[in-house]
Amino acid sequence: MEEMLTMLRTTADRTSDLVKSVRDDELALATPCREYDVKALINHLEWAASQFESVSGDGEFLPPKEYTGDFPDRVERMMAAWERPESWVGTSKAMGGMPKPLLAHMALTDLAAHGWDLSRALGRPYAVEETTAATLLDFAARMAPTGRQRGAFGEEVKVADDAPAFDRFLGLIGRDPAWKP
Questions:
Q1: Staple 52 to which of 18, 70, 103, 107, CB 3.0 to 4.6 Å?
Q2: What is the pLDDT of residue 111?
């Protein structure tokens, strides 16, 4: 739990810092996540942060809402929820009985993938530690078929076997690590 919590915190902070750097004139930029421009991507991040906060505490599945520009506040509330030990125990009824540690991996995947999407759209750096990249790659390798079935992951993008772990993770979830606007 502690190692995963550290990875979540670092990734949440990095993604939040990137969101805070977005200027109004960048909201319409395209992202590697084809269905989202920058504004829609941040809106998704807002919803996901609230969703993972809710399900960590046996809350309901939340419907998406309109963009509010408050991702940094929402991700802080999400992190506060995951810092409670009980958030790591049991399953989530709202998420079909998924084990809560699996939900934490899903939150990490969402933050890292969409943080990278945002960084590419904005032309800003986004680094992920090797331990986090290895965890993401392992999770994506196990979850890719289900993720694709449920529309969470795109079709795999072939990436060299000797590419960095984060690039291989991106390929598994349907991102081209070489994507440029």
A1: 107
A2: 98
